[in-house]
From TrEMBL:
Sequence similarity: Belongs to the trans-sulfuration enzymes family.
Cofactor(s) needed by this chain: pyridoxal 5'-phosphate
PANTHER family: CYSTATHIONINE BETA-LYASE-RELATED
InterPro entries: Cys/Met-Metab_PyrdxlP-dep_enz, Cys_b_lyase_bac, Cys_met_metab_PP, PyrdxlP-dep_Trfase, PyrdxlP-dep_Trfase_major, PyrdxlP-dep_Trfase_small
Species for this entry: Dankookia rubra
Post-translational modification N6-(pyridoxal phosphate)lysine, affected residues: 216
Pathway named in the protein's UniProt entry: Amino-acid biosynthesis; L-methionine biosynthesis via de novo pathway; L-homocysteine from L-cystathionine: step 1/1
Tagged with keyword Cell membrane: no
Keyword Lyase appears in the UniProt entry: yes
Protein name, per record: Cystathionine beta-lyase
Amino acid sequence: MPDDHASKTRTYGFSTRMSHAGRAGTHVHGFVNPGVHRGSTVLFPNSAARRDGAKHRFEQFMTYGTQGGPTHYALEDVIAEIEGGTRAMILGTGLAAVAVPLMAWLKAGDHCLMPDSAYGPARNLCEGLLKGWGVETTYYDPTVDEAGMAALIRPNTRVVYTESPGSHTFEVQDIPAIARAAHARGCKVMMDNTWGIHHFMPFTHGVDVSIQALTKYVGGHSDVLLGSATVNSEEDWKVLRGAGSQLGQYASPDDCWLALRGVRTMNVRLKRQEASGIEVARWLSARPEVLRVMHPALPEHPQHDLWKRDFTGSCSLFGVVFQPRYAIEDVYRFIDALALFGIGASWGGFESLAIATTGNITRTAGSGDFGGPMARIHIGLEDPADLIADLEQGLARLTG
Ligand SMILES: *Cc1c(COP(=O)(O)O)cnc(C)c1O
């Protein structure tokens, strides 16, 4: 009988668990899916029950809608299942899921280590509010090894943030090595695991707080913004949930319901998009206009061996570096010529996207020169042969 906790044993395959986790069981009139529970006020039969209500869910106050409701809890359970952690907090956007853990663990006088390849808005937070609050951030080479990380940690370093592979440039990080160095000095290890989804198990690789933009493949249809932060200990949960509550963080139950709907088909979409992504990436890497394709699953990727060691698969987002003879204006012309690729941010939906990335990304730990002008490609659920034909006619426009 499917119920909310049937999947907790984690002995079933991923698709089985994604079919059974976070379901309504038989207690919602027998309907398969949890309903959308909207609400601010939570009623109790009497005052004593209201006092005890505070103990119901995770010993947090469950006396008001801001603490979430049954729709949130179902999604929290599914995300904890995907990440292999104990508890997940759902937030209104992926960026909120980046911001809340950083704000939860950093205070005035602390030092934070960020990979140079971190998601741009995470860098903005470090350079904006966090800097104003007296938190200093150092950006490090994402390919740092254990000794290199140990050398970067200062007495006041509190958080070692990671994102693997990195935004736009797709460097795979040696998370276990980084986590060993961080934990030896008492730092929290955070990771943006949006690209890895369920292909990277954060807690078995030393991560303390794992972040996902559910906006991407979990939502899967470019119609919802949502994020999650997952932890694997009761102590970390108290810090994370406490910060979320203090900051008044909340996600719409309608959006949670859309994410629950998305997650049921996620693995089918992901498998198809992974295969199409690799097919298109391979085709592009053989083109004379292309210097290299930044896709960790391709054997020529500089950290392919790390990816193979730590990941069980890939998603369909990757980067392309064009030959240095091209200018960024040539890349714009290529992108504008594409018929099947939308020109826009985000990824993980059913539709293909392409954007030029040169000039859009900040790098301070490295030179920021990756050999030529760059683009980022997201492969959707279209037929790969059609996508390749479209890219081929687009490449013909590179030289004007
Ligand atoms: C998109 C994205 C986010 C933020 O997600 P939003 O829901 O758009 O705020 C965070 N991290 C990574 C790596 C992303 O690509």
